[in-house]
Amino acid sequence: MTASAEDIDFKPFFDMVVGILFILLILISAQLFFAQHVGDEASQEAERRALERERQTTAFLDAFTRRLRAQGFDARLDRPRRTVLMPLVRVMEAAPDGVPQFAEPPMSALAGVLATSLPCVAPQPSVRTDCPDVDLLNLGSLDSEVRITAVPERPPVPSERYGQLATTLFSAALLRLQPGLLALTNLAGTPVLRFSSATKVDGGQPGAAGELSFTFVFQAR
Description:
The chain is an alpha+beta fold. The protein is 41% helix and 20% strand. Strand 5 (138-150), helix 3 and strand 6 form a beta-alpha-beta unit.
């Protein structure tokens, strides 16, 4: 005898479906909670690393500025721009013919500070054994700029190109003393040390004058 549709009890099947759906709902909720928890942890870790990287950057720039001051340079730090500035007259003076000259004693001291500091943050080659607190820093570039604000009365080149001449001679003098600086590269394999010039004569007393700036650009890993 075949039971009619009215005689079949669907309640157990209904309870089973509800139970399965309830279990699936719990699993989905747990998965969403776990994903959110992992996402929050990743966000907190990224924020922590960013804060630590900023702290290490500040500490490195402060130490670099102190090293320059210890060598007799009147260095000052523009922290928001990550730029260290110092008077150009400390390392450069104009010869009688107006050509910029870079005295070896102060240039040797400057090159020594760069040779001591840059390997700590240049990704390649990585030499960080004597460099505490820089594990999150990767130097993308160090932009060294010769800023001319006054030129000799009779410059050997047009006034607007005097900064280019000074920069060429400055880079040659620096790399002659520390050629290894050119071997320091960033993550892309490009040399971190770069040279540029800016000439803005203010119309004051003739004579070679200006500022030397070092701007640090760091890359995130």
